[in-house]
Design a protein that fits this description.
Blueprint (H helix, E strand, L loop, with lengths): L6 E5 L3 H13 L3 E5 L2 H10 L4 E5 L7 H11 L4 E6 L6 H6 L4 E5 L3 H16 L8 E4 L2 E4 L4 E4 L2 E2 L4 H11 L5 E3 H9 L7 H15 L9 E4 L3 E4 L23
Parallel strand pairs: 1-2, 1-3, 3-4, 4-5
Antiparallel strand pairs: 6-7, 7-8, 8-9, 10-12, 11-12
The structure holds calcium ion (CA).
The site of calcium ion (CA) has 5 residues, from loops.
Length: 251
């Protein structure tokens, strides 16, 4: 039986809470995309499919209420709202915003996990699972099958290369430091291993035919790390072979 990886958009501007919640969710096998403000949340939501949104109410740039309403306008994705005591009058007003559940801070990560799981069970019970797939033009990442293809050709990536590419591609435009990539992809945290990320990126570029000087996919952010920025229109439909390449955006 294939287990679907559930993807959660975590919107929280308090870094310590965000890190703790993300760590707990990841330990439970969820794929977490953490973003620090409402604007980034809407951007990420427009680009990707998520199985759930965990949304803080008080957020920089675009407030949580508005994020909730905008997401709710176009999607039935389950939303759990995080509020501080006193930010909302009562449970009803939290749910009136369109959220499915809410938690009042401070909460234990364990309680959040329990709510997340319960809500997923509720909302996905009757659904047939979708294939978990990211499509960027002619680059297709089938997360379920652990397979990456470029113009229909299997790239034959190693497990680490695949994890690295999908980590970057989950959130196009986001810069990942080498250290973050070491932790996310390789799962250890010694500085010496940052070079390992560089060599994985080098191999990945070779397989993607990506020229570091004129990248189509993976950009080096000097002194920091890497970001994924496909030079094609993101195509997030689930149609196989629908990724017509638009080279107009390329120089
Ligand atoms: Ca906040």
């Amino acid at each position: 039986m294939v287990t679907e990886t559930r993807r959660i958009l975590l919107v929280e501007d308090e870094k310590t809470i965000c890190d703790a919640v993300a760590a707990y969710l990841e330990r439970e096998g969820f794929w977490v995309t953490p973003v620090p403000d409402g604007e980034a949340a809407l951007y990420a939501f427009a680009l990707h499919q998520f199985d759930m949104v965990v949304l803080d109410l008080m957020l920089p740039k675009v407030p949580g209420e508005q994020v909730c309403r905008e997401i709710r306008d176009k999607s039935d994705v389950p939303i759990i709202m995080l509020t501080a005591k006193g930010e909302l009058d009562d449970r009803i007003s939290g749910l009136e915003l369109g959220a499915d559940d809410y938690l009042v801070k401070p909460f234990s990560p364990r309680e959040l996990i329990a709510r997340v799981k319960a809500l997923l069970r509720r909302t996905h019970a009757s659904e047939t699972p979708q294939r978990d797939r990211l499509v960027f033009g002619d680059l297709e990442l089938d997360i379920t099958a652990h397979r990456a293809t470029l113009a229909g050709v299997n790239l034959d990536l190693t497990a680490s290369e695949f994890k690295l590419l999908t980590t970057l591609a989950r959130y196009p435009g986001r810069v990942y430091s080498r250290m973050e990539l070491v932790e996310k992809v390789l799962g250890y945290d010694f500085e010496g291993y940052e070079r390992t990320v560089d060599s994985h990126v080098k191999n990945l570029r070779a397989k993607l035919g990506d020229d570091p000087k004129h990248p189509r996919f993976i950009y080096t952010v000097h002194g920091v790390g890497y970001r994924f920025e496909p030079q094609t229109t993101p195509n997030l439909t689930l149609q196989p072979g629908s990724g017509a390449v638009d080279k107009a955006a390329e120089k």
